[in-house]
Amino acid sequence: MFTSVLMIEKPLSSVDVEFVTTLHGDESVSFIVLMQPRGDQADALLRAIDDVAIGRLKDVTKEGDELSAKDGQRPVEIALERSVLALREAGCQAVGQVVEDHPLDKMKAVVEEAEADEVIVLTAPHYVEEFFHRDWASRARHKVGVPVLKLFAHKE
């Protein structure tokens, strides 16, 4: 079985689920989903700059898609739960965890512990970070010791 560590920052869309679950053809894939939520003020500034850079002016002042909390769960936990469930419904094994501190260290530890074959970073475009190679994929390539694939997330 092929094991992928999947770093996301928002719930997976149905298009994303289909995309990542078919990357390896008919081979069985197991996913370890790491949810690294964006949301502090620096992230908001970078998102606004990205929106301006690609001409999405109406999105500059919008906050991210918020999920309603239920049963004491935080929105990020609900998003992770939905994403893991969607991968399982697509026929893959999947587990997940929210990563809040030191995400690259956590990613490296998970890769080593699970003996993962690859890392997939699936996020919205972050042009400023990517230009300066400060995005998750660029930084992970120097740290995790397995191939890192950068994919752009889709909206429903």
What is this entry, summarized?
The chain has 156 residues and is an alpha/beta fold. The chain is built from six helices and five strands. The relative contact order is 0.25.
Could you walk me through the main structural features you see in this protein, from its secondary elements to its overall organization?
The structure is a single chain. This protein is of the alpha/beta class and 156 residues long. The chain has helices at residues 14-21, 41-53, 75-89, 103-114, 127-131, 136-141, and strands spanning 2-8, 29-35, 93-98, 118-123, 148-152. A 5-stranded parallel sheet has the order 3-2-1-4-5, with helices on both faces. The radius of gyration is 15 Å and the shape is globular. It starts with a strand and ends with a strand. 28% of the residues are buried. The model is unreliable at 59-69 (pLDDT under 50).
